[in-house]
User: Fold Ribonucleoside-diphosphate reductase subunit beta from Alteribacillus bidgolensis.
Amino acid sequence: MTMLKMRKLYDTNAPNKSTGIINGESSNVLNWDDTTRKWTYPMYKNMLRNFWIPDEVSLINDRNQYKSLSEEEREAFNKIIGLLAFLDSVQTDFSSKVSDYLTDSSLSALMSVLAFQEVIHNESYTYVLSSVTDSQTQDEIFEYWKTDEVLLERNKFIADGYNAFIELPTKENFVRAIIYDVILEGLFFYSGFAFFYNLARNEKMLGTAKMINFINRDEQLHVSLFTNILKETLQENPELDTEEFAAFVHDCFKKAAELEIKWGNYIIGNNIDGIHAGELESYIKFMTNKRVRELGFDPVFEGYRRNPMRWISVYNDNTTGKADFFETTVTDYNLVDADNDFDSL
Ligand SMILES: [Fe+2]
Ligand SMILES: [Fe+2]
Assistant:
């Protein structure tokens, strides 16, 4: 086990251009024209282009519609927001802890932007709830994660993975923590996203869905960032790229998918108009396979190469979220793109 060294505040003897993603030499001065990884500056610009402010999205219609949701829809709406609020809160803090050990000033800069975006995500949950419910209900929703057992089990899975790294920051725990990160940002958010997009396609809660779409757009970049960090860490530290690690990735994603399916059945099941539990389970398995493939590993589930909820790509892929997409009705559910299957990956 090799411990990670914390990045120094500055180092006059080290070059500005980092010599290694972890345990490397770096002066810690950031010159975007003198970085080791050429993808970091374009990613930084993309993250900035995503900038959005929650209360610029109108929730006046959502406030009225919330009252007319079915009881099951309202319950799912509340619990999913409670879940997302927990995950984004933890994520803000976790990203800064990871950042402490990245010996590349361009990557620590990206982590700062990522953390800032997580803060915005959290603000959006406060804004939504304060717009559609009373303050007592809002307080209760922000407490769900402490008492709801299905939610707790799911969140504990991530938190334990993060804590293992925080308590013992070795190289091995670092790459493992990144797997938990990709599960959080690239899998655990997605059945929640599906729920809000399903409401939107039924023309319900369009303001909330629009914000969820902005969050989704940010998360896509966060997943790419952590995926790149993992790949480059394994490349620079080939001793970490073992069969044992591949087995860990497989088992971890499998367990995550099981927890996600359990949560999906609990929160959505067959109680929500427009989403079928079997379809959601297939979607979760498809997303699991997609993420492990992106990370460079074998799929966890046999089959599940195509997105069973094809309508969702219209929402997931809406990277021009500022174009008032959610103020119009989407009629062409058949739009597809590479995100709908990964044969080409
Ligand atoms: Fe987030
Ligand atoms: Fe994120």
User: Anything to note?
Assistant: The radius of gyration is 20 Å.
